[in-house]
Amino acid sequence: QVQVVESGGGLVQPGGSLRLSCAASTTMYNMGWYRQAPGKQRELVATITSGGTTNVADSVKGRFSISRDNAKNTVYLQMNSLKPEDTAVYYCKASNPLYTYWGQGTQVTVSS
Fold this sequence. Notes:
- The protein is mainly beta.
- The protein has no helices and eleven strands.
- Strands 2, 4, 5, 6, 9, 10 and 11 form a seven-stranded mixed beta sheet that branches.
- A hairpin with a 4-residue loop joins strand 5 and strand 6.
- The termini are far apart.
- About 30% of the residues are buried.
């Protein structure tokens, strides 16, 4: 069983920054971040392949960036210029052609 562990969430004021980290217990081809706000469906935030190809949602493009350290099986989500509407539980997803694994989620709250 692959373990996927997120960290870095918390409370931040509007305009602030946070960096989320997600570590997988083994190499995974595709890693990424999704988020789910109360009463809403889970949505894609950003993904990155082991080769570095990224996909970033339009709603966060220009504010969020995704990167990964393949040696550490870790993906990062740098979130800048945070808005109250970014408040959600952020989930890390790690996948290869056969399997998909989710982390337990980390809460991000943007509020003054």
